[in-house]
Specification:
The protein is an alpha/beta fold. The protein contains 21 helices and 13 strands. Among the domains are: 84 residues, Gyrase A, domain 2 (2-Layer Sandwich), CATH 3.30.1360.70; 93 residues, no CATH class; 182 residues, Isoleucyl-tRNA Synthetase, Domain 1, CATH 1.10.730.10.
Amino acid sequence: MKKIIDLIAESVSGAFVASGYEEKYGSVSVSNRPDLCEYQCNGAMAAAKAYKKAPIMIANDVVEKLQSVEMFASVEAVMPGFINIKLSTEFLTSYMNEMLSSDKFGCEEAEHKKTIMIDYGGPNVAKPLHVGHLRSAIIGESIKRMGRFMGHKVIGDVHLGDWGLQMGLIITELKKRQPKLVYFDDSFTGEYPKEAPFTISELEEIYPAASAYAKEHPEYKEAAMQATYELQHGNRGYQALWNHILEVSVNDLKKNYEKLNVEFDLWKKESDAQPYIPDMVKYMKDNGYAYLSDGALVVDVKEESDTKEIPPCMILKSDGASLYNTTDLATIVERMKLFSPDEMIYVVDKRQELYFEQVFRCARKTKLVDEDTSLRFLGFGTMNGKDGKPFKTRAGGVMRLEYLIGEITDEMFGKITQNHEVDKAEARETAKVVGLSAIKYGDLSNQASKDYVFDIDRFTSFEGNTGPYILYTIVRMKSILNKYTQTGATLEDIKAVAFDESNESAKSLLLEAVRFNGVIENAFAEIAPHKVCAYIYNLANALNHFYHETKILAEEDEEKKKSYIALLVLTKNVLESCIDVLGFEAPERM
């Protein structure tokens, strides 16, 4: 379906042309003065200079041509040259009925479908997920879902950190604690045990202990660096341990991401890019892209238009060791070879913007990507506590993600069971669903690049701009629709007739609902999930206003009642589609 704003713009542009003006002046926008009109066109103001004519005269010419257009209830020219538009309920109802009967409720899939890779998540193995991993996972998941809703092939990659010094630290600490493990016997030639010599709890204790000890003992850090080198150069025992670390850690990571309703198509790791590094480095040298600077291999990425210093991108350190830059560039090589993506989107802390600017420039300059391959950086801000500082536990440490989820779930369980006789098991499941909405909506309703305060009290409220409020609105509609079908009526192929012009709350809800396809399309184009949140909050407010102002089930006129029910069905479908792309769902009741 065409977006409703495009249909309006077509008529207005046609009127500009019919009046002797250029089509481009017929651009239309949602009114910034909803008390005066629903849509507006300011093209007469821009046309005035080109045609040396007063804008109000141009606006009057255009309005005259629009008087007979059936989609408009009224079109007015207002000083100094605005064109104010109100839509007819007949047109809105017809559009709404078409949405009800169409796939994805009027949202058309992209004309040119792309293969898009999203790099989000990025945890290091052997470490628990903490609140610092929250934003990348939540934002990345919503972008992936929006892209798929628009018909693109979207591939989500967790991109695990598994190849650095932390591996050497864990191996060294294990050797210190259990030196008789077969993995440390250089003469061993048999099969290594299938079971790991540690649990996830032990593994998560080993790494911080090793890291802290290394800071105070240089010889221990040196041993860890040597273990890292040996791991990366084929030590059989160390690689067997590394595989155990991966298996135990990744299984735990998957469980925790599942609690967030976050799924990855690929569980690729830094180590997967290692085989591509030698050929990539040779290619950069052979083609004159890379040169030695103080012993390190670098690629210049500065441009004449730069207003700030952009350092060279280092490919290899002076001792020949690779860096994150090397791995990330090799990962781009791997992705191009395996998937040929049209676009790669990196959802990463905004403080890494300069780093990714270097990497992207290097990839382009060295032609690791095609000319038309898009590399996009979506930097997100910090999740802070009420004190405005990065979110911490009460003891001042970094909170584990599973503890945060548990705390939110407990808070929701308390609110759901407060003053209500409910089944405790059902209430606990509902609390998980509503708690997840509180976490995700609380994050996504903020523009990704902005820091925000994670306020548990506010985010779990059933009032205001929160996830629980959105879910409560959906559940309220489900309840009304269930009562309607219990009378023997059906929701299949339900249609609406024109609404009474005097029912302002019904028209306001209609005006919000019919914007759905435009909102989703625009939010994905700008990779801006917060725009979907803003939309569904306005839609939920309009629905609740309609609910309080209108007798729905008690309406005696059956045609009117069917129209109201059809409007509820569409609103519910739109809201459920939106929360699905945001990565959460509504329970049957609350």
